[in-house]
N5-carboxyaminoimidazole ribonucleotide mutase (Abyssibacter profundi), 180 residues
Amino acid sequence: MPGSLQTLVTGESNLVSETPLVGVIMGSRSDWDTMQHAVQKLEELGVPHEVRVVSAHRTPDLLFDYAQSAQARGLLAIIAGAGGAAHLPGMVAAKTVVPVLGVPVQSRALNGLDSLLSIVQMPGGVPVATLAIGKAGATNAGLLAASIVGAHRPDVLSALEAFRRSQTERVLADADPREP
Ligand code: RP5
């Protein structure tokens, strides 16, 4: 295993107590404001996960190591967020059959339209499940990854169902928009 990946697997700061089932990666630390919402959902739903900056352009070798070893390490889904020329999700998908969920980060220059188009327009044969731009996309990526994990983990599926129920109940209990 390459040194950089060894650090990822053994580095305490990146690990929860269980073997990660979902990898959350992002092109830059500056993506964290957005990507934290995916991680928040994984935490709420009890999904073992790892978090790491992996840049398609600045650390391409790490990207290849990460994607190539993902399946063997037991990852069931990879959430990949990036902004601008957002090649990370597509390049990861090119190197693994683990499902990749792409989150377009809202860029300053073009409001995330560049990120969205970079991620969504994959050639047929190499899929990336592309989410909405920004916080909503990151949140939904966390929920979608939990659904994938839920097929193997009944506890995660139950947590996801409970989340949906409580969301519905919250809306029904507060249905009059004129009330503060
Ligand atoms: C992308 O470039 C990253 O995903 C980030 O959204 C964007 C800008 O990166 P920084 O210059 O802020 O590191 O690769």
About this structure: The beta strands are 22-26, 49-53, 77-83, 100-105, 129-130.
